[in-house]
Amino acid sequence: MATGDSKADILQGTLDLMVLQTLASMGRLHGYGIARRIEQVSEDAIALNQGTIYASLLRLQQRKWISAGWGVSDNNRKAKYYAITRAGQKQLETEARSWQRTVSVVGKVLALSGRSTKA
Amino acid sequence: MIESLRVLRSRIAGFLLRRRPEREFDQEIEEHLTLLAEENTRRGMTPADARLAARRSFGESTRFKETQRELRGLPRIDTFVADLRYAFRALAKNPGFTLVAVLTLAIGIGVNTTLFTAYNAIALKPLPVPDPNTVVRFERWFEHGMRGDIQYGFSYPEYEYLRDHGRAFKSLIAAGWPVPVSSASGRLAGQMVSGNYFQSLEVGAVLGRTFLPDEDGAPGAHPVIVLSHNFWKRRFNLDPRVLGQTLKLNDTVFTIVGVTPEEFTGTLSLERVPDFWAPFAMQAQLAPGLDWLHDLERQRLVILARLAGSTMVNRAQAEATVLMRQFASSHQEREKTVALTLQRVTYYGNTDDLKFQALVAALMLLVGLVLLIACANLANMLLARAASRQREIAVRLSLGAGRGRIIRQLLTESTLLALLGGAAGLLLSIWSAKLLWIQVQQMVFGSAGDIDTGVSLAPDSRVFLYTLAVSVLTGIAFGLSPALQFSRVDLTSAIKQEGATFGRRLSHSRLRSFLVTGQVAASMLLLVIAGLLLRGLVRSQDAQPGFQTRGVFVVSAAFGDNPAQAAALEKRVYERLSTLGELEGAAMGNIPMTGTWTPPILVNGTRSRTLASTASAGYLPLLGIPIVRGRNFTTIESDRGAPVAIVSANTARLLWPNQDPLGKRFTLDMDFTGKIMSEFEVVGVAADVRFANLSRLDPAHVYLTGQPRNFSQIVIRMPGDRERGLAAVRAAVAGVDRDLLQSLAMFSFEEGPLRIQRVLAQAYAMFAMILAALAVTLAGVGIYGVMSYLVSQRVKEIGVFMALGANSSDVLKSVIGQGLRPVAAGSLLGLVCAAGLSKVINATLIFPGSADFLYGLSWWDPVTFFGIAAFLALVAMVASAIPARRAVKVDPMVALRYE
Q1: Looking at the predicted structure, is the pLDDT value of residue B671 above 70?
Q2: Chain B residues in contact with A35 (beta carbon < 8 A)
Q3: Which residues contact B745 (CB under 8 A, 6 or more apart)?
Q4: What SS3 state is found at B25?
Q5: Domains of chain A with bracketed CATH
Q6: B320: containing domain
Q7: What is the pLDDT of residues B241-295, one digit of tens each?
Q8: Do B492 and B367 sit in the same domain of this protein?
Q9: Which residues of B touch A80 (CB under 8 A)?
């Protein structure tokens, strides 16, 4: 099934991870808020097509890692707010750990190949 | 795992409530864009620019909505539903096309379903009992390979042995072959069964009860019977008061204890439903003078077993075979049984029978051809339709639809069509199966009345499944190639609609020609077969057997089951009848056209087959078969069963070419095993007649004196006053033995066996004609369709021709020529196939007992072959003339503007 485990896996996974982390650190946010926050944190290194955030939000919702509900925004308009769930917290921890492991392994490998080309 | 379940659940929910999330998501995006725009305004943009910039950084919102939708719901079902809706709309938009396609398929599928229904009713339907898969029937295999119904016959001691020693069965059931029993209101057919019959089959009673276990105990102690529903209805008008009533059967008073349900039609194979069932313990009363219960030779009962589970068959079979061998080693039996097999009980007993299988295969092939023709039509129509929709397809492709999506769409459409056709075909087949059954009953039994053979032609789940499978396969198989071809178009030219103009050959025209060729070939084959059978039918109706049939009657009676006593009694009746002044004569011998005995014949070491039959001295004169050489049997010879023979003229020519056959000797292998070889001396040569069947003079026939196998029956010739003759016969038989009157039966040869021969020819011809008529109609429609399409594709080209000065006959020639080329090829192919088939069937005539469906017509009958070819050509001409005329009427100016 097309649950998103396709070629763009890493990128997608990364986006999901970032969304989870954002919600974990910021609490309840609406889609725009999440998108802005990710852009700010990345210091605009990630030029997000902001719409893509919604696919990620739906995926996370379907896995019950985040919950959604309607609320009123700062300027008194109806908006949909997302919050991380307990399961989402747990998932975030595992994902973060595995991400760090991946980064360190890849880093080591890159360093190794760098040495070998020098020598 | 849990995760993916969660996803699936949310998807299903999304699929079911798809409207709300859609609207909500629109709102969410709107809000997002507004926030973005506000942010942009804060940075100093004008509101319009802000809005645009917001849209830019948000990305393509339709695409997100699409992704969202796919993630949310069940995309496959969604697209399927969309495809289906689209297909329905497309079919509804073109009702003419849809109607023709559905009808075409309905005919093709309907014919196949009808045959399958019949096959299902006979060979596949299980017994009408609960859990039929655990009921098996015993079939025995003899040492010398004797085949046929006798393989299902067992003696009561054999049954007892298996019942008492078997461990692998839940229960073992015996059911005798039906016996005729006399009652106050005529003969009834009763079946003796073991006491556990109904209980083990789990058949209850709709009224009263079935047998109690102890009712099959002490012989003669419990005169009880259970009536069949059919008999209850026929005789007692469904009166519930029959319970406890008595019936005098033979000389014993029986009490009616119950009635079986309507759907229980017994466990016999292809026989009528018995009128009543009685326990085996009543055998002496129901079949007096016999001892079924102890007689080893009387192998007249069918053994069924109820197994604990359907997986037990192999174990039970192995055990039964061992037991049977043990039994054989301790008892003296006629013929050794080497193995037992257990088969699932279906309506028709011996479905492994080669003849039965060959017949089914031949019929399947014929009706399959009709379906193939229908499918070729469908494929052609789909091709034409896809071609006219090329532009639509191209537009959809250029808007970004994937090729797979287009193919799926087209396949959905063709499958939908096929399913509609299948549904219509199913209705058609229910109706036609009924009609066919009435027709068959009328032909075989002379009436479609109360003969209950237990065959049920009501469609069951197997029939539905079969039709569904055929429909879906048809839809996919014949929708695939148009779908593949037309989803691979050159977009620019298709959109500009240059696809099919100006002499440019369409890439798919070869497929189209191939389809027409195949279609024409198949209908040609069917037509030739029908034509040949029809010619045979015409000849059969005035074919004469070559002997005198007027006034010939066959006299039969139940002379008893003891062969020696029966033969003696029959002989006494015959002798009494031959002295009867009221008759023109009486003789004993085999009855023509009622079955054949074709033993191997050896002459000087050369082995061949011949038809053989018995004849008393009076037989040949009675039937008016002249002796052309030598002499007839003498009365002494025929009484003693002397080893002399009269051969037919053909036989003499075959065995002793250019020699005098008189005094020559030959040997017959009497039981096909080489065990009984009898030598005969030729004393006479008889004229050739049609004895085995009406279709031809027998290629080889020897008349013997009646020994050692006595299958003879009494034949008499009635005087002009038939009533007087019949009365005289009755009186004479009563003079010999009054008890015989009960079972005395006389039938006219002309109204019996001879009529059946002619009816059979009618049946074959009718069947073939129905198929051929359907085939030629379908092929006609197909050719018409292709021609119309070709013309419509070439309108522009024709317009240019005409503008350049071509006259209408040139155009006509070119159009018809193009259209008829595949027709010619198909005709030729069909003719060759038909000739081949005809030759193969013709080759079976070497066997002396086989029938000649063509009644002496050459297998390559020029009248049929050329006649049918001409007929089909005519159909093709007519079918292509209408579109061709349209081509001629093309107005060049209109054609050139045709866009």
Answers
A1: yes
A2: 32
A3: B555, B556, B557
A4: helix
A5: 9-114 (1.10.10.10)
A6: 132-345
A7: 999 999 988 888 999 999 999 888 787 755 567 889 999 999 888 888 778 888 8
A8: yes
A9: 24, 27-28, 31
Q: How many domains does chain B have?
A: 5
What is the ipTM score, two decimals? Answer: 0.77
Alpha carbon separation from B470 to B99, B370, B464, B482, B520 (Å, rounded)? 19, 13, 10, 19, 22
Q: Which range (A1-10, B329-338, B554-563, B580-589) has the least confidence?
A: A1-10
Check CB contact under 8 Å for A50 and B34: no
pLDDT tens string A59-99: 888 888 998 888 887 777 888 889 999 999 998 998 889 88
Mean model confidence pLDDT for chain B: 82
Q: Of all residues in chain B, what percent carry a pLDDT higher than 90?
A: 17
Q: Which of A3, A78, A79 lies closest to B7 in CB terms?
A: A3
**B361 class by beta-carbon count within 10 Å (0-12 exposed, 13-18 middle, 19+ buried):** exposed
What are φ and ψ of residue B492, in 5° steps? Answer: -60, -50
- For B57, the token pair is 């950084």
Note the pLDDT of residue B808: 80
Interior angle at CA B457, CA B356 and CA B117, nearest 5: 55
Which of B283, B312, B345 is a domain's end point?
B345
User: pTM above the 0.80 mark?
Assistant: no
> Do both B290 and B430 map to the same domain?
no
Gyration radius of chain B over CA positions: 37
- pLDDT per residue as tens digits for the range B767-778: 778 888 888 888
Cβ contacts (< 8 Å) between B72 and chain A: which residues?
A: 58
Residues 6+ apart with CB under 8 A from B752: B554
Structure tokens at B717: 């010739």
Q: Which of B714, B734, B750 is the last residue of a domain?
A: B750
Is some CB atom of chain B closer than 8 A to the CB atom of A61? yes
Cβ atoms of B284 and B220 within 8 Å: the answer is yes
> From the list B10, B27, B39, which residue is nearest A62 (CB)?
B10
| Inter-chain CB proximity A50 and B32 less than 8 Å | yes
C-alpha to C-alpha distance for B629 and B415, rounded to whole angstroms: 71
- Distance from the Cα of A70 to chain B's closest Cα (Å) equals 10
What are B625-660's pLDDT values in tens digits?
Answer: 999 999 999 989 888 888 999 999 999 999 999 999
Mode of pairing for the β-strands spanning B276-279 and B246-249: unpaired
- How close A117 gets to chain B, by Cα (Å)? 41
**B661 and B557 share a domain?**
yes
Which residues fall within 8 angstroms of residue A77, CB to CB, at 6 or more apart? B31, B34
